[in-house]
Write a structure and sequence with these properties.
The protein has helices at residues 18-29, 45-52, 78-83, 101-112, 129-140, 159-163, 172-175, 202-205, 222-229, 238-253, 259-272; strands at residues 4-10, 33-39, 58-61, 75-76, 88-92, 95-99, 121-125, 145-149, 168-170, 180-185, 208-213, 233-235. The protein is an alpha/beta fold. It has a six-stranded mixed β-sheet. Strands 9-8-7-10-11-12 form a six-stranded parallel β-sheet, with helices on both faces. It is globular. The relative contact order is 0.13.
Length: 273
């Protein structure tokens, strides 16, 4: 099997778990390859992507390059186009192709945890980049109602309404009276080291059958603990982290992998981080 080079394009990458996840992927699948951190300044990005066309089989992309990289590519998949961000590139002789695997990672996490979306009422907390992929997935799965919750309703990017035309934008005060099926935290509130805070009160969390937090450090945020104590289903972001990495490998390798592989990789990662 041919040895292939992969990497992560971004600004400051010191704390990234991506190399460990992809090394575990190589270990469990027998795919031969390397995965490097490719710290790149924004002004050096065009030259870097050009050079990678002939030396790399694929790359992940993170902050601050997810949007800036788009005009440098030959083609962009529909989900990445709609979300307005690319986090995975596949390099072939035919060109450089952009995708967004946060979308697929989020979907796979819900499927694995038996959280249905079609026809359901879903609430998304936060209006940053991660929320875009989540909103696109909810819209594509035909959620019955979608609420985007933000501190300043007037400041929400109009792009969100293009992603999910039927979504309702509300503030945290309006959220107090809503009951539904799933509430998803796409904010950094509760992330290490400020772990004793939640984006919402325990009363709000208890109004939903399932709580999903994209944060994975700590494994159990206060937000998820609120759901747990209310007897609700709760899921952290670690599976999504692994799932979006495996989704990138599926694009690069041109084949599907079972969710059991993600579980195996993340269990190994948890033991070693």
């Amino acid at each position: 099997m041919k040895f292939m080079q992969y990497g992560l394009l971004g600004g400051k990458l010191g704390h990234s778990l991506s190399p460990k996840i992809h090394q575990l992927f190589f270990k469990y699948t027998g795919v031969t390859g390397s995965y490097q951190l490719l710290e790149t300044e924004l002004e050096a990005l065009p030259a870097k992507v050009e050079a990678m066309r002939s030396t790399y089989a694929g790359s992940n992309v993170t902050i601050p390059h997810k949007i800036a990289v788009m005009p440098l590519l030959d083609s962009i998949a529909s989900e990445a186009q709609a979300i307005g961000a690319v986090n995975t590139i596949k390099f072939t002789e035919a060109g450089a192709f952009g995708y967004n695997t946060d979308y697929f990672g989020f979907g796979r996490m819900l499927e694995y945890n038996d959280i249905a979306i079609t026809g359901k009422l879903a609430v998304v907390l936060g209006s940053g980049g991660a929320a875009r992929a989540v909103m696109k997935y909810l819209a594509d799965q035909e959620a019955g109602e979608i609420y985007l919750v933000t501190r300043d309703v007037t400041a929400v990017d109009k792009h969100f309404l293009e992603i999910a035309p039927n979504c309702k934008v509300i503030d945290y005060a309006e959220l107090e009276s809503i009951k539904g099926d799933v509430i998803i935290n796409c904010t950094p509130v509760g992330m290490y080291p400020k772990v004793e805070v939640s984006p919402v009160s325990d009363k709000v969390t208890a109004n939903f059958e399932a709580a999903v937090d994209l944060i994975y450090n700590p494994a159990e945020t206060l937000f998820l603990r609120q759901a747990k104590e209310a007897g609700k289903k709760y899921v952290n972001g670690l599976f999504m982290l692994g799932a979006q990495a495996v989704a990138a490998q599926e694009i690069w390798q041109g084949k599907q992998y079972d969710s059991d592989l993600i579980v195996k990789i993340m269990a190994d990662l948890e033991r070693n981080i």
